[in-house]
Each structure stands twice: as C-alpha cells, then as structure tokens.
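Predict structure. Input: WD repeat domain 86, 370 residues.
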Amino acid sequence: MGGGGSALRVCADHRGGINWLSLSPDGQRLLTGSEDGTARLWSTADGTCCALLQGHESYVTFCQLEDEAAFTCSADCTIRKWDVLTGQCLQVFRGHTSIVNRILVADNQLFSSSYDRTARAWSVDRGQVAREFRGHRNCVLTLAYAGAPCVEEAVAGGLLVTGSTDATAKVWQVASGCCHQTLRGHTGAVLCLVLDAPGRTAFTGSTDATVRAWDILSGQQLRVFREHQGSVICLELVNRHVYSGSADRTVKCWLADTGERVRTFTAHRHSVSALKYHAGTLFTGSGDARARAFDAQSGALRRVFRGHAFVINCIQVHGQVLYTASHDGALRLWDVRGLAPRAAAPKRSLSRLFSNKVGCAAAAAPLQPA
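Output follows.
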C-alpha cells in the first residue's frame, strides 16, 4: 500500500480548529480561518506566519485569499477584507443576520451565503450590498459563479449558483437578483457544487448520496450519479472527470459527460472531507485525521500522511508541498516529491475558484492509534 509521509513543518499557532485554508493565486501565501475567531497569513516559501488577522467576534467559517487582499467570513454575521501585507482590516461587510457560511470573490464582486437563507452580492470596493438573492427555504451553504464569457448574453452580468439545505440549488441572475432557475431533484441538503469550465453545467453533491449534473441555463437535470452509500461532502472537477468524496469513506471518479463511474478510491477509515487534484495525484483529507495521495489514473494508494489528531477540513498543494488544515488547530506541511507520474504533465484543477465544500467538523472525534 502507500508509504508514510512525515511533516516538513507543523504550524500550531491557532488556538482552535482550522475551518478553511486558501492559497493565493500567485502561490506565495496561505490563509487559514479558525474557530479561535482569527485568520492567519502564512508564507509558502518557509511556512512562517506573516500576519494575524484579528477582529471577528466569533469563529471564522471560511476564507478566500487574493494576491492583494484577504477575505474572511464568520459566525458573527460579518465578512471582513484585510490587507495582506499589514494584516489591517480594510472593510467590514454587514448585512447578514446569521452565520455567513461561504464567500466567493470574482469579477470585482464578493458573493456570500448564510444561514439567514439568503445569498448576497457586495461591492468589493465600497463594502455595500449590491444585490440580495432571496428564495431558499433554508440555509444557503455553497456558492459558484459563472461570468462572461461563460454564459450567454441573455444573462449578462453572470450567474450565481447556490446550494441549500432545502434540497435545491438555485441559479440567479446577478444583474437583477432574480431567480433564473431552481434545480430540483435532490432529496437531501446540497452540500457542495462545482461548475464546468464553460460554466453551463453544475454538479451538485447531497446528503441523499447522489451527485447530479444540471444545465444551469435551462434548469434541466442532465444525469444522476448513484453509487455512494453516504452523503457527498466534497467535489472536484478536472479533465472532464468528477471526483466525489463521501461519508461512505470513498472517493469515486466519474466521467462528467456520461455519469459513468470509472474508479473508486478506498482506504479511508472515516468520511472523506477534502479533495485536491494535482499533477496526476488525487489528495484526500479524512475524518480519520489522515491525508492520502492516490495515483489518479490507477487508483493506487501512494502515500499516507499521519500526524493530525482530528478531521482534516481542507487541503492545498503548491509546488512540491501539501498543506493540510485540521480541526486540531494545526497547519501541516508535507513533502510530496516523487508522487507525480513521470509521464503526466501537471494539470490545473478547474475548481479552485468554483468549488466550495461544507467542512466536516462534526465528524471530528478522538482517534485510536493506527
């Protein structure tokens, strides 16, 4: 089976679990958001903490790092924008009336989803609400954005896709705030979603153990991926393949265009909570506190990364380093040299911007030694 991997560095500065980990587009910085109410900026060059972002009055649920600014959202109902060089808070976005679950920065707009059953679009520069998207009957969990030229001129201004615990996804016209389509078919909460490169197809994962593909312009359900035996927690879309991580302890690989299941990745001892495809390798994070590296083509387990004490909530890969963030409060850096298949050129994941998943903090529990 896979060989072991030892941590290059362990960053244990946070005083609470890390809920999300974001990599800047230029690959120079990492941003972590924590249960301790703070976020931290880290250098990918040496793993040192560059800045402590303090100001939220409750835990940080999610974060997104851009080259010039960092964005965090929190259970305190606010979103904050930060200077990545000084750590100073530049803007506070107020308006949501409950926990803010997710944020997404695109086309100089900030999109957010909340337990208050709404999604919102904000002006990044002014910090004001530009549009409210109301219609979900329960909390809005996940977001994806399709902007020009991904969608037709008929929906100029782009489309926002939201997934909710009301078992639907909705497609919104950003310019007007109107609901363009409601995607009905799931029988459980929509936990995660990704959009394809052209932006016309959405893939949603649900507690009903299915993945579904939708045409976001017509609202038509295109296909249903049925083989999981538990909630679909995270999705990754790359090279016309959909990877789905589930509470059934497996990842499945599907052909995006047909729904055919081509591979199943096993070896996890708990729910699969995070996925990242990088250079021919599929990295996974699990509720069993381990990260794993699989050969994406064959499904063979290549390496197991042991050291965390609780569920791994998020993973990123940059260069030859794997970054894992856990509910144990630690950010760990791992050497992944020697994993990439010799014949495979590095392939860029399509879901860095579009993919959002629900953390599996609830799955965290003390583990027995291996």
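DSSP finds no helices and 33 strands in the chain.
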